[in-house]
Design brief:
Blueprint: E1 7-12, E2 16-21, H1 25-37, H2 46-65, E3 66-67, H3 77-86, H4 88-110
Antiparallel strand pairs: 1-2, 2-3
Helix pairs in contact: 2-3, 2-4, 3-4
Length: about 110
């Protein structure tokens, strides 16, 4: 993990101890670009497209920022998709930790 990136060790009932790290600047920018390019798909309106983009960002965040104690990503995007179905509250808790750690970058960008 790069120096200066905030991280926390988080106990998880299902996964044991995990490390949640903050986003890198390139990751924040990539998420912003992906969100700005998201257009409604067939049968969706703008609001539904925005919700889909937010959900996909949640799973992407888990896949890149929740790490094992060895510092490697704990699960792939597809694996987090499955984990979230079975352990929704736990997945959302880990995402919220990541989001909090990302806060300084996201808040600075808004200013």
């Amino acid at each position: 993990m790069p120096d200066g990136v905030p991280a926390e060790e988080v106990p998880s009932a299902t996964l044991g101890k995990v490390i949640v790290r903050g986003a890198l600047f390139t990751e924040v920018l990539a998420d912003d670009v992906m969100a700005s390019r998201e257009k409604p798909r067939a049968g969706e309106d703008e609001r539904e497209a925005a919700v889909r983009a937010a959900v996909e960002k949640t799973v992407r965040t888990l896949a890149r920022q929740v790490l094992g104690v060895d510092g490697a990503p704990l699960k792939t995007y597809a694996e987090w998709n499955v984990f979230g179905v079975r352990h929704r509250e736990e997945a959302l808790h880990l995402f919220n930790v990541a989001r909090r750690l990302n806060g300084s970058a996201e808040d600075a960008e808004k200013n």
